[in-house]
């Protein structure tokens, strides 16, 4: 393509402006010449007095005019030549500038006609200058840009404004549009004869394309940053001010971008205790240019909840720009949850949320380890739902699962917090029961669990399913010593229970199953005995050794079963204790003793101490003091005549509590005695802190008196000790006169035993007292 050349003939206005100046100079010269000659004439006429000289001047004056005119003509010619030369130079310079300009330059008429276009413009639009001059700018303006352009051009025409800028598109000769930046300036009509516009048109197509590409890249980049649902990207200034916050950041941290941007990192997601570390870390990163090492961090959400992320950091430190840094945080919440879930499933059963077999074995091993240091009876009870397979087969696994969930929840509610329930798998559960007192306690717990399962279960779909279960029990240390063997033992006991017809429990050892069943049967009979009022009290006299008088009576519980006859307290009291019936029975004993004491007083018998046995189980309950106070009040029995007997072991195992309990009981005005003294592990320090009145020497030290040297010495020592501490001493189980005599010799205060009397029913005791009392 040949470049269009600049033709100055197309510039009539400009030509006119440039060519009038030499004439003006010539006129000035001419005026000056006429003035100079005229004034010379006048001056010479006045100055030159010599007529000859003046005449000569007049003669040559014509030549002078000629010479002057010639000079003037030469000056004029020279002036014009110079002006034209200058004009040509300027024109060629202008032409060169116009053509060489790397922006499009055009003169446009007020109608929009292209008057003159430089080479760059022609090249830009693909037209020759001639072709351009045959078009208006409207012809090749993009329709979307035309109105704006025309409006602004009109404003130039109206003189409202002198120039305008806009970005607009022109259609290239080949049909595509080119983005340009247009600058238009109106040229004053008064100066150049007619209104026209100078347009400077810059090709910004590549800029636009770059911009578009950049925008697209940005959009892609943004979309990319936003696409990672769990990848938070945050941009911060060096001082921690947020300038970028992607979608994932919104989701992970809970702040919308518009809430986060402009706020400081520390205020947003850094927990207070981490502020100092983060501040110094960022400072060090900005100063050293080294990013803070990636790490797993626990940051905080908008709702202040912690969120675990893996955080990486990138420093952007461009020359001349303030440093910025990006944090790329990967949300580990789900991963953590998964990890926790995996860890959870290693120990827990997914269906019931109960501990699994592995956890059960682990827990059992720990308990056994502890129990080997502090001996205790531990029971493992394995439960299996009877015929559960039939339920799955009949109703489907979903129903089976729901049943297992319901059963596990019911069993969990039944057990104490210290017990441990697990699902071993399928329909098999296991319970770990610590600190049981009697072997049959385990069967009691097993029966409780079996009874819980043995009922109709209503499922969410309305189906009723009747369940029963069987249980196997093994005991540490009686049956096995290790966790695995205890579980195996309980499993084999379970199969015994199943083979015995299901809905029952069995111990690992047959003998124990037998005795447990007997004890549980006895428990049920004892419950019945309370209702049927088969319990009564017998009273054994307590005799003062120095006077030989009956000074008191120990109330001893008796159970008369119509079929079996008297059932010994040593048989049923432990069952009452392990079943909890002791509380009901114990209260009855206290009330009945007080009522009887009052009756005896009313009969006119001398005031007697009535000693009542209080089980360690009763002593552990706080209501004992209140029960006694209430009983004394309701019965009217004098407090100083009531004596409570507590075993040495019950007091010594819970010393601190015992001191408090005994003090509160003592405050009621009653007497306190330590029963079975010598059989427990008394501490003298403890003993002296107890507010007691009597020490009862256990029968085992009396049995071989006075021959047995050691027992004799022990009894003597107990008497001395008791007296030193200010207690009375009572020897129990005295069967022989020699025993009575020896006790008297060593200063023992009182005794009781078959030697004087067996425990007697109240009426017989009263007769005895009347008999001996009256005779004494
Ligand atoms: N918590 C409660 N415990 C009670 C209650 N009543 C009794 N008991 C405790 O039961 C254990 C057995 O009692 P029991 O069979 O009544 O035996 C007592 C006496 O009958 C017996 N005794 C008395 N003198 C003699 C004797 O000379 N020889 C002999 N072989 N036995 C004799 O001793 C028992 C009295 O014991 P103690 O209480 O230690 O003084 C027994 O531990 C009772 O405590 C009750 O109501 N509540």
TrEMBL record:
Ranges for domain GGDEF come to 376-510
Query: Peptidase A2 domain spans which residues?
Result: 221-233
Show the InterPro entries listed in the entry. Answer: Biofilm_reg_signaling, EAL_dom, EAL_sf, GGDEF_dom, Nucleotide_cyclase, PAC, PAS, PAS-assoc_C
Residue ranges of every copy of the PAC domain listed in the record: 164-216
PROSITE patterns registered for this protein in UniProt: ASP_PROT_RETROV (PS50175), EAL (PS50883), GGDEF (PS50887), PAC (PS50113), PAS (PS50112)
Q: Which residues cross the membrane?
A: 26-48, 60-78
Residues annotated as domain PAS: 90-145, 217-289
SMART domains membership: EAL (SM00052), GGDEF (SM00267), PAC (SM00086), PAS (SM00091)
User: Which UniProt keywords are present, listed alphabetically?
Assistant: Membrane, Transmembrane, Transmembrane helix
Query: Which top-level group of life is the source organism from?
Result: Bacteria
Task: Give every EAL domain span.
Answer: 519-773
Q: One Pfam family this chain carries?
A: PAS_3
- The keyword Membrane is annotated on this UniProt entry: yes
Indicate what this protein is called per its UniProt record.
EAL domain-containing protein
Task: Give the species.
Answer: Alkalimonas collagenimarina
Organism lineage: Bacteria, Pseudomonadati, Pseudomonadota, Gammaproteobacteria, Alkalimonas
């Amino acid at each position: 393509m040949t470049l269009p050349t600049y033709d100055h003939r197309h510039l009539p206005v400009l030509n006119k402006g440039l060519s009038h100046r030499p004439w003006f100079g010539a006129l000035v010269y001419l005026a000056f010449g006429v003035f100079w000659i005229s004034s010379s004439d006048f001056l010479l006429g006045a100055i030159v007095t010599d007529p000859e000289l003046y005449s000569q001047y007049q003669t040559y004056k014509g030549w002078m005019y000629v010479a002057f005119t010639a000079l003037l003509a030469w000056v004029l010619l020279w002036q014009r030549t110079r002006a034209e030369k200058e004009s040509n130079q300027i024109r060629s310079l202008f032409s060169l500038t116009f053509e060489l300009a790397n922006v499009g330059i055009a003169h446009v008429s007020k109608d929009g006609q292209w008057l003159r276009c430089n080479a760059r413009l022609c090249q830009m639009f693909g037209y020759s200058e001639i072709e351009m001059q045959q078009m208006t700018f409207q012809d090749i303006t993009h329709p979307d840009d035309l109105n704006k352009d025309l409006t602004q051009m009109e404003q130039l025409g109206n003189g409202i404004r002198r120039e305008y800028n806009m970005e607009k598109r022109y259609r290239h000769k080949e049909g595509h549009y080119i983005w340009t930046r247009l600058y238009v300036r109106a040229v004053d009509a008064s100066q150049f004869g007619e209104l026209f516009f100078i347009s400077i048109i810059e090709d910004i197509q590549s800029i636009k394309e770059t911009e578009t590409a950049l925008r697209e890249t940005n959009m892609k980049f943004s979309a990319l940053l936003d696409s990672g649902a769990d990848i938070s990207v945050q941009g911060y200034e060096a001082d921690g001010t947020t300038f970028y916050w992607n979608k994932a950041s919104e989701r992970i941290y809970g702040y919308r971008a518009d809430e986060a941007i402009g706020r400081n990192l520390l205020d947003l997601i850094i927990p207070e205790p981490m502020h100092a570390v983060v501040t110094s870390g960022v400072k060090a990163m900005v100063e050293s240019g080294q990013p803070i090492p990636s790490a797993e961090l626990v940051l905080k959400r908008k709702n202040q909840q912690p969120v675990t992320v893996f955080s990486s950091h990138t420093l952007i430190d461009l020359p001349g720009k303030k440093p910025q840094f990006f944090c790329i945080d990967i949300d580990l919440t789900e991963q953590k949850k998964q990890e926790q879930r995996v860890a959870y499933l290693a120990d827990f059963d997914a269906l019931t949320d109960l501990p699994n077999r592995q956890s059960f074995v682990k827990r059992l091993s720990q308990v056994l380890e502890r129990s080997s240091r502090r001996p205790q009876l531990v029971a493992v009870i394995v439960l299996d739902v009877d015929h559960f397979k039939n339920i799955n087969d009949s109703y489907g696994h979903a129903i089976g699962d729901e049943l297992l969930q319901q059963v596990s929840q019911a069993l969990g509610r039944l057990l104490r917090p210290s017990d441990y329930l697990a699902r071993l798998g399928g329909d098999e559960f296991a319970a770990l029961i610590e600190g049981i007192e009697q072997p049959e306690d385990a069967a009691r717990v097993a029966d409780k669990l079996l009874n819980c399962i043995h009922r109709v279960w209503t499922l969410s779909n309305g189906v009723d399913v009747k369940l029963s279960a069987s249980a196997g029990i093994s005991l540490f240390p009686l049956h096995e010593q290790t966790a695995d063997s205890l579980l195996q033992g309980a499993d084999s006991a379970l199969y015994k229970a199943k083979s015995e017809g299901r809905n029952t429990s069995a111990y690992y050892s047959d003998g124990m199953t037998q005795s447990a069943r007997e004890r549980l049967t006895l428990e049920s009979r004892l419950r019945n005995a309370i209702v049927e009022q088969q319990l009564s009290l017998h009273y054994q006299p307590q005799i003062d050794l120095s006077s030989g008088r009956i000074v008191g009576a120990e109330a001893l519980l008796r159970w008369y079963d119509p079929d079996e006859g008297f059932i010994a307290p040593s048989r049923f009291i432990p069952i009452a204790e392990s079943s909890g019936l002791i509380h009901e029975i114990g209260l009855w004993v206290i009330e009945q003793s007080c009522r009887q004491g009052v009756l005896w007083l009313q009969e006119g018998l001398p005031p007697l101490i009535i000693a009542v046995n209080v089980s360690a189980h009763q002593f552990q309950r706080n209501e004992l003091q209140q029960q006694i106070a209430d009983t004394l009040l309701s019965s009217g029995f004098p407090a100083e005549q009531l004596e409570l007997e507590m075993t040495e072991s019950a007091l010594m195992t819970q010393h601190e509590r015992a001191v408090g309990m005994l003090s509160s009981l003592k405050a009621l005005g009653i007497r306190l005695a330590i029963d079975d003294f010598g059989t427990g592990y008394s501490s003298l320090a403890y003993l002296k802190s107890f507010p007691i009145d009597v020490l009862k020497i256990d029968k085992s030290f009396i049995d071989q008196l006075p021959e047995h040297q050691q027992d004799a010495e022990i009894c003597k020592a107990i008497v001395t000790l008791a007296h030193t501490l200010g207690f009375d001493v009572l020897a129990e189980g005295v069967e022989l006169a020699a025993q009575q005599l020896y006790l008297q010799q060593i200063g023992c205060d009182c005794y009781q035993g078959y030697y004087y009397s067996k425990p007697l029913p109240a009426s017989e005791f009263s007769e005895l007292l009347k008999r001996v009392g009256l005779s004494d």
